[in-house]
Amino acid sequence: MKREDLIESAGELEKVIPEAINEYREKQDKLVSIINERMLKRADIKELVGEQNLDMMKDNHKNHAMFVEAIMSNPNPEVLTDTVLWVFRSYRSRGFHQNYWSAQLSTWIDIIKANLSGKSFDAIYPLYNWFTINIPHFTNLSDKQLDHFR
User: Among 49, 86, 91, 147, which has the highest number of CB atoms less than 10 A from its own CB?
Assistant: First the structure.
């Protein structure tokens, strides 16, 4: 899959209802706190992010939540795709394993399902599903970009 295909698929995501965006925004700090706590408890966390990258991981979670809120409020398929590719490329170059994103995103999904209303979860889930199902494509494209810089 090419970058353009990801942009096209992102463009097919439905706009998130304002109520869901507001609930996500209001609970954002709590959601970030929960994901940090859960990810830090994982037995494989150092294999997923690298020995010295726990603070970087926590920063990523905070940035992720702020970005998700922003992209839901102002959908832009190109910005969404290019930002995710940048994140994969940047974090992979610092030792994050590709399996980190599967672990992180499945945890995010569990957390938003448990902490947001059903209506909000249903509105937000397609974006998280898009992130999740495209992990192999983000990995492949970011690896190609990293190889280009080496």
Answer: 49
pLDDT digits (tens, 9 = 90+) for 27-68: 999 999 999 999 999 999 999 999 899 999 999 999 999 999
Please tell me the pTM assigned to this model. Answer: 0.93
Provide the 8-state DSSP code for 17: P
CA distance 75 to 67: 11
What does the DSSP 8-state code read for residue 97?
A: -
Q: How far does CA 79 lie from the centroid of its chain?
A: 14
Residue 73 in tokens: 């409020």
The token duo for 48 is 């997923």
Residue pLDDT, tens place only, 81-136: 999 999 999 998 899 998 999 999 999 999 999 999 999 999 999 999 999 999 99
Given a contact cutoff of 8 angstroms between Cβ atoms, the answer to whether 123 and 16 are in contact is yes
Which is nearest to 104 in space by CA: 45, 53, 55, 52?
45
Residues 74, 15: Cα–Cα separation, whole Å: 9
Rounded-to-integer distance, Cα 17 and Cα 29, Å: 20
Q: For residues 72 and 90, what is the distance between their CA atoms, to the nearest angstrom? A: 23
CB-based contact 81:10 (threshold 8 Å):
yes
